[in-house]
Design brief:
homodimer; mainly alpha; 0% strand; DNA-binding
DNA sequence: AGAAGGACCAGTGGTCCGTA
DNA sequence: AGAAGGACCAGTGGTCCGTA
């Protein structure tokens, strides 16, 4: 019954991205241009799934191997792109990746509003419930394994956009794949944590857009390991308990 | 492995209540006297379980039906007691009930310290993990169904001890049973919520000792229903959405 | 009857691994 | 090979109901 009501609500309320949007909002970092790109990409996707040729005019890219019809659809894989760069071909760029995190946030806010309206328990994080809601709202390209996989990349983007951007440019130039870039995102995050007393949970919870995401296990472990190293070289008692800073 | 390590830690660290404690701390509300009472009760319990007669001197109450040995042991049922009153016979009083909540808080703090030490996810609430830890630490009289059952009673005790105390005295005088008293605890809580914009989650999370407990479903529902009532008699549009206060 | 708590269950966080 | 995500699993929050 709670699920049914969710269904009802998810049919309205959840607008698609606006089809047209002013181009001048482009460089604003909020994903302004992105909305347009996302819409284009989505149309491509839709055309592919339906299996007809497009009935509205558009710039297209590849249309080969369109023959299928009911074949398994996946999102295009990510590639390392510079800030503002749109991926060409059957690829998605990193601005799009980060845009997905913003979309999840919007879905969470909607779920929270519904919960409050009904006096039910209100999630503070992006939970299974939110992923389910997103899927029902038609955002089938959002899923938990993907979002969890790249959380720390998004975290770096939120916490230090300059460093994040520099890293993207460097890895693009070197022609690295997404997995390698993703791995590289850990290091600057650990450095940020070091400066803030190693409390990665506090770092996440303090940031308005990051606070809704669970700290990834591996990032937590890296921070802990690095803290132990730092502490070992600072303290004389190697076996003693690690004492957190108190400033 | 995480479980094994927990075992190791739970063997040390977890002190029993101090056996002796100054009597002058009695009326302080922190459970000062309670420690002594709890210890006495625990000795009774231990003697019963072991099935021998006591090998240390004590004032005892009933010792009948001691014959068993491996019979199923349960905590004595609660009765409505006034503040400061110790239950006589095979009963437990409400100061003891509230004391259990404080104990859970101590166990949570220990679990949190261990988690932090290890760089693991750190619970902010009394979770299954904490109940498991309490059990391993020997506090077998603490269990989840019991603690959840009386959370709102403890909440009233935390939020308005005067009202809570008055309620206890009134219900004791009337000879009401625990279940009736428990039910009666909801109403003043809803009244408190009304004064604070109906946000029972905020009320819990704001209070230092209450913030570690999940808001009980029924209390949440009562607050929501009552808010709807209040709103219906205030607003002219009966079917409209309920707008939260913004002060 | 009133009450304590073992034990169950639906849905969670977490991520592996069969898939493309 | 590199990557996306369906689907599984251990342990959770929640509380019912067989027990005393």
């Amino acid at each position: 019954d709670a699920t049914n009501a969710l269904d009802a609500l998810s049919q309205e309320g959840l607008s698609e991205e606006p089809v047209q949007q002013e181009k001048e909002a482009a460089g604003s970092g909020g994903g302004g241009t992105w909305e347009i790109v996302a819409t284009e990409k989505k149309k491509q996707r839709r055309r592919k799934v339906v299996g007809k040729s497009g009935d509205d005019e558009e710039e297209e890219e590849e249309e080969e191997e369109d023959g299928g019809g009911g074949e398994r659809q996946r999102e295009h894989p990510f590639i390392v792109t510079e800030p503002g760069e749109v991926a060409r071909g059957k690829k998605n760029g990193l601005d799009y990746l980060f845009h997905l995190y913003e979309q999840c946030r919007d879905f969470l806010i909607q779920v929270q509003n519904i919960s409050k309206e009904r006096g039910e328990k209100c999630p503070t994080k992006v939970t299974n419930q939110v992923f389910r809601y997103a899927k029902k709202a038609g955002a089938s390209y959002i899923n938990k394994p993907k979002m969890r996989h790249y959380v720390h990349c998004y975290a770096l983007h939120c916490l230090d956009e300059e460093v994040s951007n520099t890293l993207r440019r460097a890895f693009k130039e070197r022609g690295e794949n997404v997995g390698t870039w993703r791995q590289a995102c850990y290091k600057p995050l650990v450095a940020i944590a070091a400066l803030q007393g190693w409390d990665i949970d506090a770092i996440f919870n303090t940031h308005p857009r990051l606070s809704i995401w669970y700290v990834p296990t591996k990032l937590r472990q890296l921070c802990h390991a690095e803290r132990s190293n730092a502490s070992a070289s600072t303290s004389s008692a190697a076996a003693g308990p690690i004492v957190g800073p108190s400033f």
